[in-house]
Amino acid sequence: MTTSLADVASSGATLRAFLHGLPGVDRVGADQRAAMLGSRSIKTTAKARAIDLAISMVDLTTLEGADTPGKVRALCAKALHPGEGAPRVAAVCVYPDLVPVAAQALAGSGVKVASVATAFPSGRSSLEVKVSETKLAVAAGADEIDMVIDRGAFLAGDHLKVYEEIQAVKAACGEAHLKVILETGELATYDNVRRASWLAMLAGGDFIKTSTGKVSPAATLPVTLIMLEAVRDFRDATGRQVGVKPAGGIRTTKDAIKNLVLVNETAGDDWLSPDWFRLGASSLLNDLLMQRQKLATGRYAGPDYFTLD
User: Fold this and answer.
1) What sign has the CA pseudo-torsion 296, 302, 306, 309?
2) pLDDT of 204-215, one tens digit each?
3) What is the pLDDT of residues 240-280, one digit of tens each?
4) Cβ distance 239 to 204 under 8 Å?
5) Which residue from 7, 71, 175, 285 has the highest number of Cβ atoms inside 10 Å of its Cβ?
6) C-beta of residue 231 within 8 angstroms of C-beta of residue 263
7) Catalytic positions, please?
8) How far apart are CA 299 and CA 92, in angstroms?
9) Domain 12-297 belongs to what topology?
10) What is the CA radius of gyration of the chain?
11) Which pLDDT does position 43 carry in this prediction?
């Protein structure tokens, strides 16, 4: 049985009342459960399957001021052919001005073109600029938009402003999927992470994402746990499934597998797919490929055998 939450955002007061009426997060309990799940040991065949699944979930990312078309083309080539027998990654994530380069390189491959937008990473711009940037990225070929919320408005209690901005950007996306970046490292409390997660989902986000990767702490296991609980509970309440994307600080195969265990044990295996779970990373793929080769051959190839991203 699904529940309509259409009236929750009828005013700032009703939205605030709903968000602050969500159950509080037991911080100690969340930390302990994340640590316990993160200590699970995955070996041999299960580890090999987990590595390939993690590769297929990677949003291979370059978001630097020095990015060039050549760098993006090289990243796209790696996304399409990560290693012998390895699956393709889920997406390549770039700045809006480089979307045409990525779109051309990935055309017809099934690998998505993702673009950050809405004044990434600060989110400090007018709604008109955010909507315009989103439309331009989609028109240039972006399949997915990673938007950042206005954390200042959220922390000041102006939840309706954040809600309406997400709705407007979602409308500007058209057929493109919208990932809503909460920048959890700036939200101060686990309760705020839960509230921001629900706010983003209520406003129409297709994914909720931890971080821009530009703020520390980024994607911690307890925060990802809370967001996975939120998408699970949201689907129970509404019937709509929303994805989760931890990003920032996920650098090793061990990190990736910890996240996959978290998904399986918290939200369930319905989320163990690139359609519903992504890993935002730039350096993670190389470690996954090295560990994959070690399992296959018994030897580490070493980082010199893989491109630097």
Assistant:
1) positive
2) 999 999 999 999
3) 999 999 999 999 999 999 999 999 999 999 999 999 999 99
4) no
5) 285
6) no
7) 146, 209, 245
8) 29
9) TIM Barrel (3.20.20)
10) 19
11) 86
Q: Cα–Cα distance between 34 and 160 in angstroms, integer?
A: 31
Distance CA 11, CA 159 (A): 10
Exposed (0-12), middle (13-18) or buried (19+): which is 147, by Cβ within 10 Å? Answer: buried
Report the interhelical angle of 69-80 vs 99-106 (nearest 10°).
30
d(CA 206, CA 243): 6
The ranges assigned to domains in the chain are: 12-297
How far is it, in rounded angstroms, from Cα 212 to Cα 273? 22
Read off the pLDDT of each residue in 110-114 and give the average, rounded to a whole number: 98
Amino acid type, 35: A
Q: Give Cα 122 distance to the centre of its chain.
A: 17
